[in-house]
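Troubleshooting log. The previous structure file for this entry was overwritten by mistake, so regenerating from the original sequence record. Sequence copied from the archived sheet and checked twice against the printout by T.R.
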Amino acid sequence: MEFKDYYSALGVDRTASDDEVRKAYRKLARKYHPDVSKEADAEQRMRDINEAKDVLGDKEKRAAYDALADRVARGGHPEGGFQPPPGWDQGFEFHRGPRQGPADHADFSEFFSSLFGEAERRDAARQNYKARGEDHHAAIEIALEDALNGAEREITLRAQTVDAQGHPQWQNRTLSVKIPPGVHPGQFIRLAGQGMPGHGGEPPGDLYLEVRIAPHKLYRVEERDLYMTLPVTPTEAALGAQVQVPTPIGGLVEVTVPRNARNGLKLRLKGRGLAGKTPGDLYLLLDIALPPADGDDARKAYEQLAQATASFHPRQHLGV
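Regenerated output below.
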């Protein structure tokens, strides 16, 4: 049996604070959760991450594990594979977290079971264990239109359960989700009671869905603001113009392009982003589109423009 380095599993130093451990866990969980990850080994990595978090996120387990790691570093275990030395946990008392039960660690490694499994089984047998179910997290991707207008959608998630024999297994479940208008990337939608079952008659946990918005052909989303590239002609940019722009909720709005507008100029349409207590804005980024000189009239027009603007030197700042 191999000695497992839980600090390496989370990518943190041994001196990492509790907050650093939690942040590292959340970052890796978002990357490797089987609901969203495309990594081939996502399920195994997620099991390793959960196991490391279970130990390093518990003060008693972490202290005992650190003491054992020190003994291992000094060569304090038999050759031919790791085995926990007799009495290695003397002086340490282990507690389950507030949302963990005896079956929650069924898919953890042999290493974990050899250290903490028996202690937890003895503890569970000594008491009528009661605890609220564990909260679960998942990510969902929605269309921008659903974020703007709100919607009700059915989603399918993969969830880990434990069968009657205590063996872990993955199963799909379909849930109906109400998406409120104005939801933005990174926001969580809470589904009460859709987390893990409780123990001893206690209520189940909740499911938190982290919102992600799918790429849109016109708009880019940042928090509650929307950004759109607005093509304009050189004459519209130079002379100013009134142009029509599609809005995210449908319809057109007339926008003033100021005279001598430069490429990349940002125009703001207040309150036309995602809804909210403080609605977001719609920003239009001007993109000067050059007409092709593919005809006699166009070439003549460009030649006349060149003569009229002969004193204009766009590369003067380059020293040429």
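Residues 226 and 285 are 11 Å apart (CA to CA). Archived copy saved in two places this time.
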